[in-house]
What we know:
By secondary structure, the chain is α+β, with helices and mostly antiparallel strands. The chain is built from 16 helices and 13 strands. The strands form four sheets. The protein has a four-stranded antiparallel beta sheet, with helices on both faces.
Amino acid sequence: MHKAADKTGALAGAAYGNERVIKKSKNLWKVGHVAVIAALCAGIVPAQAQDSVDSAEDSFNIPQNVTMLGKSNPNVRRATAIVNGTVITGTDVDQRVALIVAANEQKISPEEEQRLRLQVLRNLIDETLEIQEAKAQDMAVTSDEVDQTYNRLATQRFNRTDAEMTTYLKSIGSSPASLKRQIEGELAWDRLQSRNVEPFINVSSEEVDDLYNRLQASRGSEEYRLGEIYLSATPANKQEVFNNARQIVEQLQKGGSFVGYARQYSEASTAAVGGDLGWIHLEQLQNPELEAVAKNLTPGQLVGPIEIPGGFSILYLIDKRQVGMADPRDAVMSLKQISITLPKSSTQAQAKAKVDAFAKEVKAIRGCGEADAAAAKMGADIVTNDQIRIRSLPEALQQALLQLNVGEATPPFGSVEEGVRVLMLCGRDDPQVDSGPTRDQLMSQMESERVNRRAQRYLRDLRRDAVIEYN
């Protein structure tokens, strides 16, 4: 919902997409930080997990007989698609897939690679249409502009020279040309939106006032920050889409990046921001089943695929909070970590005895003033940190720390392999109550949402008018 029709791959999301600056009326929005701004506008813009009509029309009907080329000679140019006369080759697909696989830093199964190749082909077709449209509108991106962005990316993001960047890309099976083509597509699409979309977006002060008043009235109610992956389905391909969604869930459960998968596979307009819906009330999902499921999630939990009208949804709860109220997890704490190591050969009984003795000695410490001397006496290591935000810690530790008074410690945690430790609370700065977004921030958010919807329709029209031949 935050950015429509951005078809970058996972590497671009990690490396280039977050550098890319998108003009949004009076403001500059960095794609990687749109969700942060959206959080300021929680409960304001009605959000949907998907737009079933737009999603269905926004999807390419890629034939089942598309020839997906395997490892090929880079010098042999074979077309997998021809878009308005522009050839997309198997080499183009291979090199873009290599970028995504390298960014995800994990091996993928042959079945996953096949699905990824189909998605990459779709991305390349969109890219081609965007570049062609910019040229047709006399807004073509020059090679100098592409090179400048590429060089900035190499030096600032990857800390590499041009030659080192070339070596790196070739080592992962990609090339500078592949990344530069992606950069050209992004710059072209930004340019098209700036001239053909944004000037025609208008938000009235009355609309802003109405939303501002609604936000003030909603203070104290719960809101959720959700990630979504939406896959559209028809009666004919329903089972196939469900199987694909289930495989995506399995990959995510094995440690795959939700942001990366959302960028690559989700058909909702939130794909460009890694599926991040921002802070919303559950009613904004406009689906009772999704509301019921999301309400029972804990931060970090994943659920799906869930069948909804028009397709399937995968939800991930990033966080939840109360509107307009100070979140205790934003408190900044001063902590001392006291830790001991356990002999690797310890039996379960021996380890338990040592942990029990450690817990007893920690409990006897009378505040942080005695912690260093007590740690030295018991042969434990101690580390102090005065700037730990509670929410940066694992969920279980967050709950334990929220219950502590100054001078108290958490129960021991850890393992035989990693050692056992406790955290002692030495001080706490509670967060101030958030006054909420200003009217200007709300105006910017609403403008951004409308630009996204209009941009999605723009790209959909380009797809409809295109002449595409598949190999």
